[in-house]
Each structure stands twice: as C-alpha cells, then as structure tokens.
Amino acid sequence: MSLNADATFWRNARDHLVRYGTAFVPAIIERAAGSFVYDADERPILDFTSGQMSAILGHSHPEIAEVVTNSIHTLDHLFSGMLSRPVVALAAKLADMLPDGLDRVLLLSTGGEANEAAIRMAKLVTGKYEIVGFAQSWHGMTSGAASATYSAGRRGTGPAAVGSLAIPAPFPFRPRFEKNGVYDWKAELDYAFDLLDRQSTGSLAAFIAEPILSSGGIIDLPLGYLAALKEKCVERGMLLILDEAQTGIGRTGKMFAFERDGVTPDFLTLSKTLGAGLPLSAMITSAEIEEKAHALGYLFYTTHVSDPLPAAVGLKVLEIVERDHLTARAAAAGQRLADGLRSLQQRYECIGDVRGRGLLLGMEIVKDRHSRAPDNELGYRIGQTCMDLGLSMNVVQLPAMGGVFRIAPPLTVSDDEIDLGLEILGRAIDAAHHLKA
Ligand SMILES: Cc1ncc(COP(=O)(O)O)c(C=O)c1O
Question: How far apart are CA 371 and CA 351, in angstroms?
Fold first, then answer.
C-alpha cells in the first residue's frame, strides 16, 4: 500500500488544520531537493512552480543550507531595534543593484507585509489615501495588501480599505479595446484613468502593480505600458509601487522585470524570490521619500523586521544568482520552455495562448482557439493528471479566462528537466482529453 495513504496523517490533517485556500495535494511530501519534491513513496514530482513561486535556486540548495546552519548557530533573531552586518549588507547590495531612486530598504518577511509597508508609506508621504490596483491583481492577505487584491478573496469579510480602486489590466489575448482590429491598450488605459478620476475624491496616493500579473493569469504588461502608467501617476501626484514578488531576482530574464521598461518606480517590493523560498521580503524606496516618511513618524515595527538570518540568506541568493548567471539562464531556459509549449500548442487545440517572460510563463486552456471560450474544467483535469504523472503545475481558475497554468520552474532547472516537464504535460493533455471522452 502507498505510504501516502497514512490514515493517521490524513485524519489529523482533516481534524486539526484550518483550510486556507486550494485543496491539499493527496500526497505526503517528505523531502525536496533541486527541481523535485518527493512523496512518502519516494516518488519524484517535478516542481514547475518553484514551491509557491519562490524557490528560484531549487530546493535545499547546499549553499543556502550552509548559510541557514551557520546563522542559526551564531546570529538568528534580534531585538528589532538592533542592527547586524547581514541586514546592512543586504540593504546596501540591493541599493547597489537598483537604479538611483531605489536607495533605502526595509527588510521584512512576506510579500503582503512589504506591500503593506509601501502602501502605508505612500499614504503617509502624500497625505492621501486612495490606492489603485489592477482588477486581476494579487498583493497579499494583510488588510492593506488584500484591499488592493482583486483576483480573489474579496467576498464575505466586509469593506476593503476606504479608497480602494481598480482598473483593468491590459490583456491582448482577450482585448476589450481595438483600433482597426489591433488591441489598443493606450485607449483602455486612458479610459480607465478617466473613470478613476471621476470616482476619486481627490486623494489618489498610489498605484500598485505587478509587472506580470501572476495570480491574475500571467498577464504581461505590454512594453510601454509601465511608462504610460508612471506618466499617469506623475500627472496626478500619485506614487508608483511595483510588486516584483514573482518577477524579481532574475526570473523574467532580467534581474528586475521593470528594467525592460526603463521605468523606476517610487517603491519596489521584493519577496518570494528574494529568499528563494525562505521568508524574506524587502520594501525599497528613494532617500527623499524615506526622509519625508521618517520626519512624519513612519512606523512599521514588526517582530522579524531586520532579522539577520533571512538577510544572510538573501545575500547568498543574490550572490548565487549573479555568480551563476541565473538571469541569463532564466532567459535561455524560458525560451526552451516557451518553444516547447508552443509546439504543444500546435498539437492541442485546447492551448489557447502561451505567454509570459523568461521562466514565468502562462498557458491558457480554452474550448477552441477560434472562440477562445474558457475551459476551466479541462484545465483542472490537466493539472490533476500532471500531478498523477509526477509534474506539479499550478492552474488558476479565473473569471472570464480559461484555466491558466502558471509555469515557473527554478532558475536552476536543467534542459533535461524542462524536456521532461514538457513530455509529461503532453501526456497529461492526452489523458485529460481521454478522461473527458
Ligand atoms: C505578486 C504578489 N505579491 C504579493 C504576494 C503576497 O506574498 P505573501 O504571500 O508572501 O504575503 C504574492 C503571493 O502570491 C504575489 O504573487
């Protein structure tokens, strides 16, 4: 009998765990190494989501393990008012890697927290309170971040923060605005801001955006969009917060996704990928904004702010990504993966679209390519079948979209592992169609 069928384990899970979102995978994961996780039967499962889109160095990277071991023995956690070398070194390293205007760093634990910190600072320094996001966004579960999250979770817990507003993200696969048959995101953006200006009480503080909306279905902002968005913000005295939880630290083939656009945001938030799977996040802003916030009494005091252990991990992550040229590797591996997905698309009518950048790719499942009618059910079945065949893929079900696979292997993934993932995916699509029939 499979060791995954441990009745006590599942009874305890059922009786004592709070369910917080998606259904649990029906396997007991015992260990993880490189691009694979292993269940209780020692069955390898290829991890094409880098855990929760975070483990860019794969699992249990030996150098990260060494840093964690050393830190826990020598410098673990401190009074939040104390500073240590890893914290100051990581702040200086990030500032050095980033353009002028992103000079001051606050080190925290999660993505939601980093966004919360940015939103709080934007409100304080502008003296305004309206925060605008995309209608397909995800920024976290804490209340400020959740108020700016529109892709899920808005029902049943009362009002979001006063002044929460949204505009549609530009989406060429399902365009709403066209000129002469061509998607016109500029017209859509103008219209969105026209509506925003009408709804605003004159207190627009900030816009928060992901360069590629991940939980929203891998919606890649077209080149030029971020610059146009920044211009709209400047015109209104709003600050721009870029949330690079998933796109930061090499994943898109650039160290930071915004580099492609040549736009420096007022705030950059990093999380998931910065700790490569360990809880580390950063909120980064300009010296000017930080000075003003400090003078106004900015408070963001948490238990794990400026903790040395995760900071030491972050430093090592950056060192490895630079040393091993993982940004270039993400571009090359991403190209191989995208080519493979596009050749699957030639074979299977249900693959409506392949999109994204580097090693953050989306594959949308539709009923047929002509109508582009969403097929969430088939997407779900393909996802389940992939897992049965040893490939972990994350499929998000979104309104007015087919099931969208978010494909984000570690940046350390090998060519053979990419080919293995594509081969399993092809078999899963065949099997899922068969199941339907
Ligand atoms: C773009 C983005 N921002 C923020 C978050 C929230 O991060 P955390 O779950 O670490 O709070 C997520 C999580 O999925 C995310 O995808």
Answer: 12
